[in-house]
What does this fold into?
Amino acid sequence: MEKNNVIKFTSILSVAIFVISFSMVDPISYVLAHNFNSDDSSYFLGLDKRTKIELELAEKNYPLNITLSMDHSDNAARLVYDIYYADDDIVEDSDFIKRYNKEVSSSNSTTFALVVADLLDEVLRGYADALVIDTDLTNMSNLALLDELQNLTKQSNSTNFSSNSSDNTEGEKSEQAKLFSTNNSIFNYADYETAKALLVEIKDIFNKHLKSPSDNAINSQSENAISKLEKDMEKLSNLINKNNGSPAEVMKLVHLQIHPSLQTAFGLQTKTNMDGQMNMDGQMNMDG
It folds into this structure.
């Protein structure tokens, strides 16, 4: 009986540490994140890609799965509203068409690299929503706690934190366990469909605009970064499409591999950094 009480206390303490730790990093979430400098063009094109994806998914599911079709239709309607009012100068349809044609015809590889970065964030958000994970996977500063949380998960492997515990249903699996589990169930399938479709769109953008950019003087470092980027994005697609990688693994892949490659290959700049010391590998050089 005493042993059970100790296990329960350890479990409760682990949850407390998890919640408190994540609440402590919120104030610096945007300092350590890969928050790239975007522009109006990349924002507009990103909304355009997402809108088309939701419209296609709504049509794909109709009429076989009307619930999913409605979910995607709602998302599309919201995105259509956002993109139409993204520019204050757009007051009627003809204005929107002019803006649309301008962005599609004049964007360069840097713009499309920013679009990819934006869509990658949407993939992470969609995947987290699909698994019902509250942790912000787009927030790079949350990576600092992953090792500590993983150790807690291993220590609690025989308790109700275990992803394989017979008396712990999938719906009751803790946030901590979900982050490191490779067998999470999909709860919100519309979000999962969107995340997978975004990955297809990202690959298409890469092949058309980034794999062999004509508007940049590519050096050997950029070539290596582009080659690595292609491999890592393929790995990301496999992890999410097969749902056989943990959210922590997916998060690390995007922030520690894919984002730095985008920076190196296309010269993306971050909005904020600490004392101007964020380097091209996405790592922070801090005194002490």
In short: Residues 1-33, 160-167, 273-288 have pLDDT under 50 and may be disordered. Residues 39-107 form one domain. The CA atoms of residues 14 and 190 lie 32 Å apart. The first helix runs from residue 2 to 25.
